[in-house]
Design brief:
By secondary structure, the protein is an alpha/beta fold. 38% of the residues lie in helices and 12% in strands. It has 5 helices and 4 strands; from the N terminus they run βαβααβαβα. The chain has a 4-stranded parallel sheet. The chain starts with 12 loop residues before the first strand and ends with a helix.
Length: 169
Amino acid sequence: MPSAPPPILPGRYRVALVCLGNICRSPVADVVLSAQVAEGGLDDRVEVVSAGTGDWHVGEPMDHRAAATLTSAGYDASRHRAQQYAVSWFSECDLVLAMDGSNLADLRALAPDDADPARLRLFRDFDPDEPGGEVPDPYYGGPGGFTDVLEMVERTCVALTTAIAAAVS
């Protein structure tokens, strides 16, 4: 399992989760990772944020199907509002995780020359079942796609939380 890079500021850690519009995959990962970080007693040191590479959903809540999937699994999906990834996050985030290869390529194109490439990865690099896989976009599919995404995200977030805990300890 990969390790998380060391924190920029000792004792603090900021993770950004990024997809295309910030209404499906990255907010699901944000909600799940935030819950696992809190359960692990790390929420006083670890901040989780999410964003999209595109701006067309800024200010909107997450997709109703994503929210319903999270809610039925016992998570609170009510607080999310979509935002666009800001170039300043490259220097503010310890780890930036893209949901798929296209998002990763978009982020690499946005990255300033001094951005640390070790801090920019695929989210599923931390997936114990399929390291380096992509989180498929469930937007144009049925509810089963959202359930599949949640299962991938939950298991990946367990490993990711462990890696982050080791980085901030």
